[in-house]
Structures are given as C-alpha cells and as structure tokens.
Write a structure and sequence with these properties.
A six-stranded mixed β-sheet has the order 10-11-12-8-13-14, sandwiched between helices. Strands 18-17-16-15-19 form a five-stranded antiparallel β-sheet, with no helix packed on it. It has a four-stranded antiparallel β-sheet with strand order 1-2-4-3. The protein has 718 residues and is an alpha/beta fold. It folds into five domains: 177 residues, MutS, DNA mismatch repair protein, Chain A, domain 3 (Orthogonal Bundle); 100 residues, Orthogonal Bundle (MutS, DNA mismatch repair protein, Chain A, domain 3), CATH 1.10.1420; 207 residues, 3-Layer(aba) Sandwich (Rossmann fold); 68 residues, no CATH class; 39 residues. 55% of the residues lie in helices and 14% in strands. Strand 13 and strand 14 form a beta hairpin. Helix 3 crosses helix 11.
C-alpha cells in the first residue's frame, strides 16, 4: 500500500505524466493499467521493474526487436467462461486465439534472447503456457473466423446437403428464367434479388401466367417480383438445412466453450501479461521521448540528481523549440535539507518540483531524464506543500490550509520521508509566520527527514547556515540585466532582488526609495549584502573558469614542449651513439693501418699475429657475455643500425654526386687562406666547426662535442 497521498501526486503533476505515458499504449487495457500506477518504496519491486523498462528501451535500437504485443481484449469472454452453461461466440474465440498465440510468440522470443532480456525473461518464466487452448480453437475455427466443415460429422453432412440444394436452386431458377424469357413475360432486367432470394422480374400484365410466390413489386407497379414454383420447393429445403446448420454450430461452440472453460486462469494470466508488456512498452517509449535513463541505486540514502530535467517542461519546450535548463542537486545524510532562495521567476519552484516528480517516477518504475551517473534512493513518504492551496470548499484561507498541512507533516515526518515545501512560511505576518516556519524546520531536521524548501525569509536562510546537516542554495540571477540564469548554486543563500526587480518592471525610483525607508535598515543591508556576495561569487566563478582555461592551455603547451624535447633528446642520443661507434671504428682502423705499415717495413709475421691477437683480446674484454636470445635481439638492432647507416651513407653519396655534377657549372671560388678562429666546414660536408690550431698543412677543427685533424685543402671558410 502506498504511503504517498493523492494530493502529493497532484501537486507534482504526476497524473499528467501518467496521461502522457497512457497515450503511448497500444491497447485500451494498457491505458487503464497505466492510470492505476502507484509509487512504491519496495526496492525488490521497483528495481526489476526499472530493469525491464530499460531492456524494452534498448530493444528499440537493436536488431532483436521485441515482437508486436497488440491484442483485442478478452474481458467479455473471461466473464462468460465464469458463467456456467454460457457459450462464447466465434468472434470471441478468435480473440482468445489471438491472445494465446501472441503470448506464445513473446514467451518464445524472450527465451531465445534471454541473454539480452534477462529481467523480461525472468518475468516470462512466471507465465505457464499450454498449447491446448490454441489447438482446440484451431481444430474448430479456420483462419477466416468460420467454423470448419469438419468440426463435426453432422455439420459436414449438413453443409454437403446445403451445397447440393443451392445447386438445385440455381439450376431450377435458370430453367424458369429461360422458359419465361422465351414467353416474353419478363421485364428487360429479367431478374432481381429480394430478401436475399433470386426472383423473376415479371411484367405486371403477365403475373398470373407465372407460377410461384410473389415477394414484391416495383415502385411504379409495372414489375412484379416472383420466385418460381420450381425454385420455391428447394428454397424451403434450404431454410431447413440452414436452421440445422445454425443449431449444429451452436452445439459445437458450446462444446468448445466447455473445453476451454477449465483454462480460465491461463487465459486471464495471458491477458494480464500482455497488459504488463503494453505498460512496459509505453514507459520505454516515454523514456525515449524525454531521454530517460536508469541512474545508480545508492545504498547509503544518497539522492544526487545531475543535469536533471523536468519531463513535462522538457516536452513542452521541445514542441516550442525552446531551451530547457537542467539542474543539479543532492541530498545525503550529512546534507539532508536544502533551503533555496532567490528572486521570483528564477526557477526555485521548478527545481523543487523536478526533484519531487522524478522521485515519484523512479518509485513508479519509470526512467528519468538525468545524467546516467546520478544516484537515487527510495522514500517511504513524500510530503508536499506547493502553490496557493486556498480551500474554498472548506472555507479555509491559504495560511489555515498550510497549517493543516504542517500538522500532517509533523505526524508523518521521519527519517524515511522526503518533504518539499514551496514558499515556506508565507500566508501570515512575515515575522510571526517566519518564526513558526523556523520551528517547523527545526523539528523536521531533528527527525532526520530529507527535504527541499523555497523561501524568501531571512531567518530560514540563517537557520540553514547554522544547522550542520542543512545548506543554503540560490537560483543564479544576472544583477546587470536582472534576468534569471536558471542555474542552481549550492552553498550560499540568494537575494530576492525585490527592489531591483521592481525597478526593472517600471516602478518609479521615488516609490522604491519610499518603500526602503519604511522597513528596517538592517534588513535592507542584509539583503544587499547577500546580493553583493552573489555578485562577487559570480565574478569569482567567471575568473576561476578563465584561470582554469588558461591552466589547461598552459598544461597542453608544456606537454607539447616536453614531447618535442624528448624527441630532440632521442635524436641527440642516437647521433652520439653513431658518433661513438664511428670513432671506435676510426681508432681500430688507425691501429690496423699502423700494424700494416709496420709489417710492410719489417715483414715479421709472428709480431703481426701477436699484435692482432692482442687487439682482438682487448676488444673482447670490453664485450659483455650476452645470452643467445639477447644476442639475437642485439644482432637485429645492430643490423637495423647498419642498414640505417648504409641508407644515410647512400644518401650522402647520391647528394655528393649531384653536388659534383652541379659544381661543374659553378665558377671556382677563390682560395682563401685559413687562420686560427675561422669558422669552417669540409668541402663536401655540412657540419660547421672552428679552427683551434694549424700545424703544417693540417688544422685541428673543434665541432663542439669533438675535435678532428683535417687537411687544410679539404676545408672551406664559412
């Protein structure tokens, strides 16, 4: 049984949502079922319901779309099956067959795709299906909705006789027609149909010459419609057979009804199942329309609605192509109550109604338009006091009605309650009403209730600031244009901008000043202070956003610089490795050249062999013992380096060749005498160095990271 009062549902416009969902149902019974939806606080009921709607929503976008569930109601037939000796008509059996077959198709579908539709399949398993119902009906009734000839031996015999008699009627009528046409007794139209029987159109002057039954005449009386005597005898026989057929069909249908009657509970469960399918379908369609999702369920009573939309406002604005502003608000054990303040028409009431309506929808198994990472929890009671509830019928003023509401709140409010109060404390003397409202709020707070209230009262704003598990919030307002921004900001109270809004709406400045003088200066200063704080907070927020943007930009630039630096460092390291390798080969080459020259002069093989072996041993000492796998990797790396060097050498060779060919057409530069300190490069090279010293015809050139001895003829001044 729901603990949420009907007045709460009405305050939050829940019936309007149900009406919109019902409009998406495929059946009338589905629409009726939607209007019976009542919010529940039982998680064991609500969570599977939400999962089923979510699965239905997903089916709209995938290839395994759920089959059509439309059906004609069998409510009348079910009532007949409850009455003893009643008979269901052929049309009723067709509807029963349709319900049974549609149920079978859905059960078979969910079984086949149970990995995609787990909750829908779990529910389908509770439906017991028997093929007997469909088999018995299909045995008697064909696909066109007629009782089959072979439904019973008697019916089959009667229908064979009927066919024979109908043939005799046609044959006898044709003979009479031919006879009287030749006698020229018939009018130009020759024949007609009266009371579903073929008749001769006899000229009035010859009526006594034609034997048969007169069934009528034309308006002018010139034609008399006569059924021939030969045909009349067969017609009587036909009537008797038709009566027998009708009686046999009734007997068959009564027998079929008795066969189906024991399956009453099965048929009722099939219809109920299809109605539920229709409700889930409508909820899923509505979720698609409003962008509804299933948020996260909180275990610790956290309600965190991120980018939440009011569904009715969202759909209305969509139709009018207007923008809808989402709100983000949260309630939790450490922040149970939020007091929203700010100017009128700023969105306070919409924010409060959004929270309440979305909570009702979730507790009714509907997906809601929020960020998927929002968090929800369930409440046993939702109490509301929204709008001007002046009770004319009970002769109660707004304030009296609100006091009665507060009395109900005091009776029912506990730690499993969500209360929503719009314009808390209004309707009486501001100071006295405000003091009473403050007391009520303290009681709600002490009982651990969760709630949102909107107010203009300063004492309530101060109380929210003082209570450790309550907080202020305000609807943002542009102080320059005095236009609402429809953005909720948590953490600080808002100014009502009373005089500013009045000025914007054309109230003379002199009258506003007179009004300011009539109230206490402290209140004006307090409201002005709040307004100034809001302006400063707004400016700080903009500055913070700007700084954040600059910080992100600087981080991106630093990242790019770091990547560039890393690439340069890697290149320098590879060049250094290449240079070290080249220097090693040059050193070995020089030693080998020295040994060759020495051997050339003294021809001492043993000395040469000893020196070579010594060189090899010295080099092997430098080498580390490498595992076969690592050796293989090193070999691959070495081959890559060799290939890279060969590629570069080949590139240099080709470039030099091109430069030599181009140099043939270039006039020879005059030879410049090189001196210490000159910046030079090799004639065929690019690297630039500085001459440190000159000895004979060679120069020591400093390239920064190394020096080298180069012939002066191979150098040119830069």
């Amino acid at each position: 049984m729901s603990k949420i009062h009907s007045s709460t549902l009405k305050d939050l416009e829940f019936p309007v949502v149900l009406s919109q969902v019902a409009g998406l149902c495929a059946t009338e019974l589905g629409k009726e079922k939607v209007f019976e939806i009542i919010p529940s606080s039982d998680k064991e009921i609500i969570l599977p319901e939400l999962q089923r709607v979510k699965e239905f929503t997903a089916s709209f976008q995938n290839d395994n779309r759920i089959p059509n569930h439309g059906f004609d109601p069998i409510t009348k037939e079910l009532r007949l099956l409850e009455i003893e000796n009643s008979t269901v008509e052929v049309s009723g059996f067709r509807r029963i067959l349709s319900v049974a077959l549609t149920t079978f198709e859905l059960l078979k579908f969910f079984k086949k795709y149970e990995e995609f539709y787990q909750q829908l399949q779990l529910y389908a398993e509770s439906i017991t299906y028997t093929p007997r119902i469909a088999e018995e009906i299909q045995r008697v009734i064909d696909k066109y909705g007629e009782v089959k000839d072979n439904a019973s031996p008697a019916l089959e015999s009667i229908r064979k006789q009927l066919q024979h008699v109908k043939g005799q009627i046609n044959a006898s009528f044709s003979r009479a027609l031919t006879q009287y046409v030749q006698a020229d007794y018939l009018d130009e139209i020759r024949e007609s149909v009266v009371e579903n029987r073929r008749v001769l159109a006899v000229k009035a002057m010859h009526r006594k010459k034609v034997k048969g039954a007169v069934l009528g005449q034309s308006k002018t009386g010139s034609i008399v419609y006569i059924e021939p005597q030969q045909t009349l005898e067969y017609t009587i026989e036909l009537s008797n057979l038709l009566y027998e057929e009708d009686e046999e069909v009734k007997r068959i249908l009564k027998e079929l009804t008795e066969t189906i009657r024991p399956f009453y509970e099965f048929l009722k469960s099939y219809q109920d199942y299809l109605i539920r399918i229709d409700v889930w379908y409508a909820k899923a369609k509505y979720a698609n329309d409003i962008g509804g999702v299933l948020p996260l369920f909180s275990k610790d009573r956290h309600l965190w609605l991120k980018n939440a939309y009011h569904p009715l406002l969202l759909l209305s604005n969509k139709r009018q192509k207007k923008k809808t502003f989402p709100q983000t608000i949260g309630l939790e054990p450490n922040n149970r109550i939020v007091v929203i303040s700010g100017p009128n028409a700023g969105g306070k009431s919409i924010t409060l109604k959004t929270v309440g309506l979305l909570q009702l929808m979730i507790q009714s198994g509907m997906l809601i338009p929020v960020d998927p990472y929002s968090e929800i929890c369930l409440f046993e009671r939702i109490l509301t006091d929204i709008g001007d509830n002046q009770s004319i019928e009970n002769h109660l003023s707004t304030y009296s009605y609100r006091l009665k509401q507060m009395n109900q709140f005091l009776k029912k409010c506990n730690d499993k309650t969500l209360f929503l109060i719009d314009e808390f404390g209004t309707g009486s003397d501001p100071e006295l009403g405000g003091a009473l409202a403050e007391t009520f709020l303290e009681v709600f707070y002490e009982r651990g209730a969760f709630g949102i209230i909107t107010t203009h009262y300063s004492n309530l704003k101060l109380l929210a600031n003082e209570l450790p598990h309550a907080t202020n919030a305000n609807m943002q307002f542009d102080s320059k244009s005095l236009e609402p921004l429809y953005q909720l900001h948590l953490g600080e109270a808002g100014s009502s901008f009373t005089f500013e809004v009045a000025q914007k709406n054309g109230i003379p400045y002199g009258l506003i000043n007179r009004a300011k003088k009539k109230i206490e200066g402290g209140k004006v200063r307090f409201d002005k202070t709040i307004a100034n704080l809001q302006k400063e907070r707004s400016a700080l927020r903009k500055t913070s956003q700007s700084l954040k943007s600059e910080e992100d930009k600087a981080k991106e630039e630093a990242k790019q610089l770091e990547e560039t630096n890393t690439r340069i460092q890697q290149k320098l390291e590879s060049y250094q490795e290449l240079y070290d390798a080249n220097q090693k080969w040059i050193s070995l080459g020089k030693r080998f050249d020295s040994l060759s020259e020495k051997f050339f002069n003294n021809k001492r093989k043993k000395e040469l062999t000893d020196e070579l072996l010594k060189m090899v041993l010295q080099e092997n000492v430098k080498r580390k013992k490498i595992a076969p796998q690592q050796k293989k990797v090193e070999k691959v790396k070495e081959q890559k380096v060799i290939k890279e060097v060969e590629r570069k050498v080949e590139g240099i060779r080709k470039r030099k060749k091109k430069e030599k060919e181009a140099a043939k057409n270039v006039p020879v530069k005059p030879k410049v005498t090189l001196q210490i300190g000159d910046r030079v490069r090799m004639i065929d090279g690019r690297a630039i160095g500085t001459i440190d010293s000159i000895e004979k015809k060679k120069a020591i050139v400093n390239y920064g990271i190394f020096t080298t001895n180069v012939s002066l003829e191979e150098l040119e001044k830069v």
